[in-house]
C-alpha cells in the first residue's frame, strides 16, 4: 500500500514523523483526509485533533492547536505553534484547565483544553 | 612578615577569588551554549517549513496582501534590536546596538522615521541613558527565550505594521540580532521581515525546484492571512534563539580571557611576592651576620 511521509512539527520541536496511509485533519473550510498522491494542498487548520493512520493499523492521535498543513510530493507537513501527541497529554491537568477556562470564560484556553481532552480520551 | 609581602599576599588572594568566579561563569556559559544550540536546531524544522509555505503562497498566488506588497514611498520603519539582559559578555550587546544605530541612520537618510523596539536590559539602559526614544521593550528572557516571548514581541510589531502610517503605524519591519556562526564568531545581522522580500525567499526556492500547484484551504488570501503573523513570530523566535546562543558564546569567551588574565596576574604577583620574601630573608641574614661579626669584633677587641 502506498504511504505518505508525515512530519508533525511544533514551534520548538519535532513532535512526530513517520509513514502513514491516511491523515485526517480539520482545515478552516472543513475536514480533510489526505491519502498518498493527494493533490498538493496548503491549508490553515482549526484547533482539532489530527489522526494519523499507519500501514500496520496503529493510529497516532495528536492535539494540534491551529497551524497549517502543506502536502506536496507525498510529503505532508503539519505545522503548529503548539502540538502534542495524545499520550503526552495529562488528562487531569487538561480537565482542570477546562474547568478554570470555563469559569473565566476564556474561549481560546477552553478550546485548547477541549482539543487536548478530545485527543487524549476520544471524548 | 614585611608590609610589602603582606600586600602581595592579599592581592593574590583577591585575584584568586575573582578567577574562581570567572571560571565558574565560563563553565556555566559553555554548558548553556550547548542547550541554546539544541534549541536553535529544534526550532529549525518549523522555521524552514513555514518559510517554504509562505514563499509558496506568495509566489504561486496572485493574492495581494498588505503584508507582502511594498508600499509606495515608505515613511516610517520599525527596528527591533535584540540585546542581552546581563553584562560580562564582551562586546555582544554593544555590537548589536552599534549595528542597530547604523541601520537607523541609514533608514533616516532614506527619509524614514524610525521607531525602535528593544529586547534585553542592556539595550534598554543604553537607549535610556542617551534619552533616545523607545517605542517598546521586553526584558528578562534574553538567555532562555520561549516561543511565548517571541509571540508577545511580534504581536506588538505586527500591530504597529497593520496600523495606518498616519495613525502612528509603520511601513517596514527590521530586526537586528546576533547570528551564531561558531563558538568563536558571532556577527550582528540585520534583516527586513516585512514587507516580505521575495527576492531572498525566491533564491531559496530555486534551490528546491519549482513549487507544486497548491490547492489553498480556505483560500490563498485566508492562508496568507494566517501564515504571515506566524512567519514573523517564527523569524523573531529564531533570531532570539540565535542571539541567546551568541550571548552565551560571547560570555564564555569574555570569561575565558578574564580567567586567563587572572591566572597571569596571579603568576606575576607570586613572583613579586617571592622576590619580596627572599629580599626579606636576605636582609635578615645580612643583619644577623653583621650583628654576629660586630659582636665577634667586640669580643676580640676586649681580649
The CATH architecture designation of the largest domain in chain A is Sandwich
Most extensive chain interface and residues per partner: A-B, 25 and 31 residues
Please count the helical segments of chain B.
6
Strand content of chain A: over 45%
Strand content of chain B: 5-15%
Rg of chain A, please?
Answer: 14 Å
Rough outline of chain A = globular
The structural class of chain B is alpha/beta
Compressed to H and E, one letter per element, the order of chain A equals EEEEEEEEEEHH
Q: What does the main sheet of chain B amount to?
A: 5 strands, mixed
Total E-strand runs of chain B: 6
**Termini separation of chain A (Å)?**
31 Å
Task: Give me the Rg of chain B, rounded.
Answer: 31 Å
Give the overall shape of chain B.
Answer: elongated
Oligomer: heterodimer
Describe this structure in words.
The complex is a heterodimer of chains A (123) and B (303). In chain A, 23% of the residues lie in helices and 46% in strands. Chain A is built from two helices and ten strands; from the N terminus they run E-E-E-E-E-E-E-E-E-E-H-H. By secondary structure, chain B is α/β, with parallel strands linked by helices. Chain B is built from six helices and six strands, in the order αβαβαβαββαβα. A five-stranded mixed β-sheet of chain B has the order 3-2-1-4-5, sandwiched between helices. In chain B, helix 2 links the parallel strand 1 and strand 2 (113-119). The mean pLDDT of chain B is 86. Chains A and B meet through strand 1, strand 5 and strand 8 of A and helix 1, strand 6 and helix 6 of B. Strand 5 (41-44) of chain A pairs parallel with strand 6 (215-217) of chain B, so a sheet runs across the interface.
Task: Considering the chains and any ligands shown, give keywords for the structure.
heterodimer, A: about 120 residues, alpha+beta, ATP Synthase, domain 1, about 25% helix, B: about 300 residues, alpha/beta, Pyruvate Kinase, Chain: A, domain 1, 5-stranded mixed beta sheet, 6 helices, elongated
